[in-house]
Each structure stands twice: as C-alpha cells, then as structure tokens.
Amino acid sequence: MLTDEFKYKILKLIEDDSEISQRELAKALGVSLGKTNFCLRALIDVGLIKATNFRNSKNKLAYIYLLTPSGIEEKTKVTLRFLKNKILEYEKLEIEIEVIRKELAG
C-alpha cells in the first residue's frame, strides 16, 4: 500500500526534479529500488505521474517524471493530510516527553 508519506515524498521529489532517477528516488526515500519502482508504477497507473522517455549523455535512455494536473491536485491534498498527521505525532510526543520529565523530576 502506498502511504500518504510515500506519496508526499515521491510527488515532492519529482516536482523538484523531474529528471530524478529511480535509484536517486530510492536513496532519498530510504527504500529499495523495487519498492520505488512499485510506488512509481502505482502513481502512474492512477494518473498522478506521467513518465516520458528521453535520451541524455550519462544514461542512454532515462525517464522524465511529470506530475499530471491530477497529480498536482493530489499532492496538495496529500501534503495537508501528511502535515496533519505529523502535527498529531508531534503533539503526542510533546505529551510523552512531559510525562517522562515529570517522572524524572519526581
């Protein structure tokens, strides 16, 4: 399953660099090349990303990944959901830290 976190990160990385390779994406995401390929294919299948072949000097054949209009819209939605989740995680951590501080002081 493609989580909001991976959707957000992939869409952001592609938006920032449309010529990013799958290997570079995998490294940035901290996942295997196979998982990266799976995630990209899933995003392509639902129409959020378009992959186009191009030639360059270091790779004889590579891809440019572009966000489709649906991809741009989904990136906005997923960014908001991702941010809300991270804020909730942060608030829970703040509470947990305060409890631990009180235990240590107490």
Structure, briefly:
The chain is mainly α and 106 residues long. The chain has four helices and two strands.
Instruction: Give the radius of gyration.
Output: 18 Å
Strand order of the largest sheet: 1-2
| Overall geometric form | elongated
CATH topology: Arc Repressor Mutant, subunit A
Structural domain count: 1
Structural class comes to mainly alpha
Outline the secondary-structure elements.
Elements (H helix, E strand, L loop, with lengths): L3 H13 L5 H8 L3 H13 L3 E6 L7 E6 L1 H37 L1
Helix pairs in contact: 1-4, 2-3
3D structure, described in words:
- The chain has 106 residues and is mostly helical.
- The protein has a single domain (4-81), classed as Arc Repressor Mutant, subunit A.
- The chain has four helices and two strands, in the order H-H-H-E-E-H.
- The protein has helices spanning 4-16, 22-29, 33-45, 69-105, and strands at 49-54, 62-67.
- A two-stranded antiparallel sheet has the order 1-2.
- Strand 1 and strand 2 (62-67) form a beta hairpin.
- Helix 1 packs across helix 4 and helix 2 (22-29) crosses helix 3.
- The longest helix is centred in the C-terminal third of the chain and has 37 residues, at 69-105.
- It is elongated and about 65 Å long.
- It starts with a helix and ends with a helix.
- 16% of the residues are buried.
Name some characteristics of this structure.
Arc Repressor Mutant, subunit A, elongated, mainly alpha, 11% strand, 106 residues, 4 helices, 2 strands
